[in-house]
Design goal:
single chain; 266 residues; alpha/beta; Purple Acid Phosphatase, chain A, domain 2; six-stranded mixed β-sheet; five-stranded mixed β-sheet; globular
């Protein structure tokens, strides 16, 4: 009788917790934006955490926007490529990688790219700042083609739109509520904010995303946002998932020193 009354007042049974399939473990990394220092420390922390837990097939998913705004986008791309050679790692394309790739051929995309942190990206490659400052758009494209290695371009071109693991969907920016996953537009996966970030809809999965900056990770019913603004705040966040367990690993820099913290979440 008591359980019936509880269900009556609750309106419906509680939804089962989202889960990763047995034997698997996933780490999702938020937007790095050129912070090679924080990314290197977080990669080390993830590998240490993974080694300290029981054996599992572990996967790291980078949620995109590895480049722009921070001081060392070239270093971040190199670190990501090298990490992928040592472990299972999948990378999503963010809107900033989309702009970067488009900038090589389209001057208007290059203008947009440079306004949103592309200058810092280009100067993380062997491009002379004075030469860059005096260059026209066409000359800037020539500098890019000469300085950015083919490995970085191929790495970005191979980035994915979404990754599904168990009850979790990993995307850069989000999805359009009410649209089946197979019908989602690439532009939304990389650029959307509203109506996704305030949606209270059942999205059919728990969406883990970056793109929208939060002071602390956003833990909503069907959404987990883990972009904590690394380029500006000096905090880079990763989400760990195993079974129904969730935990956060964060690297931060204060007074030039990078530290690591970790905590479990509901």
């Amino acid at each position: 009788m008591l359980s019936k009354l509880i269900n009556l007042f609750a309106g419906k049974d509680a939804a089962p917790a989202a889960a990763v399939p047995p034997g698997q473990r996933v780490y999702a990394v938020g937007d790095v934006h050129g912070r090679a220092d924080l990314f290197a420390a977080l990669a080390e922390a993830i590998e240490a955490d993974n080694a300290a837990r029981s054996p599992a097939d572990s996967l790291v998913i980078l949620l995109g926007d590895l480049v722009d705004r921070g001081p060392d986008s070239a270093g971040v791309l190199r670190q990501a490529r090298e990490w992928q050679q040592r472990r299972a790692l999948r990378v999503l394309m963010g809107n900033h990688e989309e702009m970067f790739l488009g900038s090589f051929e389209n001057p208007e995309i290059l203008r947009q790219f440079l306004r949103h942190g592309g200058r810092e990206t280009l100067l993380s490659y062997p491009i002379d700042p004075a030469t860059y400052a005096a260059a026209t758009l066409g000359e800037t494209q020539k500098l890019m083609r000469e300085a950015v290695p083919a490995e970085d371009i191929a790495f970005m071109q191979a980035m994915e739109g979404m990754v599904r693991v168990g009850d979790y969907l990993f995307v850069h920016a989000g999805i359009r509520p009410g649209v089946p996953l197979e019908q989602q537009r690439g532009a939304d996966l990389r650029w959307i904010r509203e109506p996704f970030i305030t949606s209270r809809d059942d999205l059919g999965c728990t969406v883990v995303y970056g793109h929208t900056i939060y002071d602390r990770p956003e833990l909503a019913a069907s959404r987990i946002g883990i972009d904590t603004g690394a380029y500006d705040t000096g905090r880079l966040t990763a989400l760990g998932l195993e079974g129904t367990s969730r935990w956060l690993i964060e690297t931060r820099v204060e007074d030039g020193t990078v530290s690591v913290s970790q905590r479990s979440i509901a």
